[in-house]
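User: Batch of two.

Assistant: Item 1 of 2:
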Amino acid sequence: MSAFGIDFGTTNSAAAELLGANFHPFGYAQRPLPSIVAIDRATGTAKAGPEVREHQLEHEKSGRFHVVRSLKTILDSEQLWQTERGIWKPAMVAAEVLRTLSDQARQFGVERGIRSATFSVPVGVRPSAVRVLREAARLADIKVNGIIKESTAALFAHLDKVRGCRYVVVFDWGGGTLDITVLEIRSDTVYEKYVDGLPLAGDSIDDDLARRVHPYVAPAGKSFDEMPERERDALRVHCEIAKCHLATSNETNISLVEYGGKPSRNRASGSSRDRSP
C-alpha cells in the first residue's frame, strides 16, 4: 500500500509517493512545481505550473490575468481576485496548485491521482491557514490524512543518515519563512523539542532587491511604495530572476524597457560581491 505526501510551498510545491521503503517524487524531481497561478480576468479560468512561471512577466504586463505568487503567505487573508465569472478566494487558488500536483501524479502512473495525502506546513503556521489549506485539499478532491511540520518532514527524509544522533537541528529557509526545529531521536521515535520561525526568507530578499534597484530605473522622485502594485510585482519578478542567476554567476543585469508607465531611466546591474544594484 502506498502513501502520499504534499509540500504546499511559498515558491514551489511538491508531491511524493511512499511505497514500502521507496519514495518517488512526481513531475519535477529537481524542479518542483512553481506555486504560481494565473487567473484569467475574463473567463474566470486558472492555470498553474511551470508555464505560468515562465510567462509571468507577460501575464503581469498584459493586465489580462491575476498572477498570484507566494499564496501561502496570504492563505488565511481576506484577499480576493475578481473576474467577470466570479470571485476567487485563497482556498480556490491553492486548490489549483494541488490539482496540478495530482495531475502530475497521473502522468507518472498513479491512475486516480492523489486521493489522500499528509501535508507539511511551516513551524509557525496559523491554525486559520491550516483550515484554508484543508479546504483547498477538499476542493482538489484530496483527503488530508495528517499535518506535519516541514522541518520534521525533512528529518524523516534523511533519518537513516542521522539515526545515530541524539539531537538534530533542522534549518528550513524557504520562500516565506525561516524555520528552526530541534529534534530528539530516541529509538524509532522522533520528538520535537523546540521550534521557532521568522517571516524572513526568499520573498524578503526579492523585495529588498527590488527596493535597491528601484532608484536606478524609476521615474524621478517616485518612491517604490508609490508605484502601482503591478509595477512593483513586475520588478520583484525581475529581481527574483536576477537572484537565481547570482547563485551560479558573479554578475547579472536587470533590464526594464518600461517601468512606471514610462521608459526606464537606466539598466541596473548587480554583483554577488557587493551590496549595490
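Item 2 of 2:
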Amino acid sequence: MRLILQEAALRRIAPQLAPFEGKLELLAADDAGKITGGGRSFSEDDAQPEAAWMSFGGGGGRAVATAVLKSQRLAWVHTTAAGLDAPIWAQVVDKGALLTTGHGQAVSMAEYVLAEVLAHFQRIGQRRAGQAAHRWSPIPFREVAGSRWLLVGFGAIGQAVGERARAFGAEIIAVRRSGSPHPLAGRIAALADLPTLLPDADVVVLAPPLNPETEGLADAAFFAAMKPASVLVNVGRGRLVDETALLEALARGAPGHAILDVFHAEPLPSDSPFWDHPRVALTPHASAYGSGQLARNDAIFVENLRRRLAGEALLYPADPRDIGR
C-alpha cells in the first residue's frame, strides 16, 4: 500500500512502522513540499497514494493534500481534524475513499475548558491583581461543585469535558444526536430541548460538529434563554455562534462571560470588539495545543494503519452528516 504523509509525522512514528515492513511504500512531503520515497522524487500528480495521513503537524501539508486530491487510487484517508466542515473532506469522500478521524485532541480541549471555566469561577485575574498590589483581601469565588453543565455535542470532546467537570462535582446534561444514554451524563437531550435546558445551565459548552443543523445554533433566542452570570464556552466552530447576538447578550449579562477559542473570521481581526471585551476570554483556536495531543493522534493513526493492513474495521470512521458540503 502506498501511503503519503508529512515528513515530520513520519519521523515521529518511524519506529512504530517496523512491523509493517514490506507492506508499505512510504512517500513523505517535507517542509518545502517536496515529495520523496524509495530513493526517488514524486510530483503531486504522479504520487498517486492509496492511503494518506493528513496530520497537519509540520510542513508539507499542502503537498499531501494536493497529492490526495489528484490520486486515482485513493482508498483511505486518516485525519487528525476534529471538525470535518472544510471542503477537502467532502472531496475525499466523493473520490470514494474511506475517511477516518483522530480524537487525540479531546484531552487537551477538555483541560482547556476546565482551566478557563475555573479561572473565571475562581477570579484568578483579581487574585493576581491583589498580589501585585500587595493587598491582603480574600476574594470569594464560585465552586464548580453543584453547578450544572450543558454540553452541546457529546462526542469525544464533550465526553472528555463531562468526565472532568463531573469529577469536580458538576451535574452533566448532554445534548447528543444519537440520544443513547451515557454514564457521564445525568440526562441525554436533543437540540430541540435547548429552550428548556438553557435557563438552568451554569456553563454551556459548544462542541458539536458544524453542519446545517448546528450552524448559527447559538442565536438571539439561544442567548435570551440563558441565565444571568452563566458561562458560554465555544470550542467547536465559530459559525455555531451568531457573534452579533452574543455581543448584545453579553451587554445584558446573560451569558455573563464567554470563553471563545473559535470565530467566524480567523485570525480574528485586530479591530474585533471581542479582543477587549471585559466579559470575554479568548484564544486563537488553540484549545487543542496540549503537550500530549501529537502522541495520542500518532497512536490512533498507527492502530488504524495496522487494522487497514490486517483487513479489520477502522476506528472512528467519519459520519457523513458531519462532512461539510
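The chain is about 30% helix and 15% strand.
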